[in-house]
Amino acid sequence: MRTVTLRQCLLAEALGTAVLMLFGTGAVVVNEQTHALGHGGIAAAFGLVVLVLIQGLGHVSGAHVNPAVTLGFWAAGRFPGRRVLPYVAAQLVGAFAGSALVKLLAAPGSALGATLPAHGAAQAFGIEVFLTFWLMLVILRVTSGFYEQGLLVGLTISATVALEALVAGPLSGASMNPARSLAPAILSGHITAAWVYVVAPVAGVLLAVVVDRLLELRPPEA
After folding, report:
1. Whole-prediction pTM value?
2. What is the pLDDT of residues 86-141, one digit of tens each?
3. Cβ of 8: how many Cβ atoms within 10 Å?
4. How far is CA 143 from CA 171, 185, 206, in A?
5. Domains of the chain from N-terminus onward
6. Are 12 and 55 contacting, i.e. CB atoms less than 8 angstroms apart?
7. With contact defined as beta carbons under 8 Å apart, do 213 and 54 qualify?
């Protein structure tokens, strides 16, 4: 069986995160200019690109494309600590590259799909904690050895992303991903609440790891 190298994994993570930005935040920018997609279309774009990335790159790197997810897998004991920083670095590189390409399509003054609180940082923080908690919990549940069933894994995770984006997008942007939020925020200059989209996802995935352990099936006591 052929072994996947770390270099290949990092390339997949960088490429995957760039594609996430191109189709996800790219959908936001296209809708700003044409109003052709609407909020539902943007949510669908994020869900669909996540499905494509999982099916296309999951066998190479796991298709984390999200520093919070990488951290969550490490905290759950499913990912080696020595790979966490290289993965996060690759994801950030990919996010900035993808966002830079989106900027070429955007009109002057565009936020490039940056996630911004609709009603204050406190509300956005709480929403992002819950959204990332639920996303990570779903990921941990469906990728466990007992439940994993190929294509259904990608469909379940992408449906979760689309659902959360559809419902919570208007309130917090439904980021769940520090790389996805930081790149457009920095490139567009909308950095006031950027901390929300870094701290909240980290808190969310750590909470998910705790709950996942509480849900673990245990053999019956004798």
Report:
1. 0.93
2. 999 999 999 999 999 999 999 999 999 999 999 999 999 999 999 999 999 999 99
3. 12
4. 29, 31, 17
5. 6-215 (1.20.1080.10)
6. no
7. no
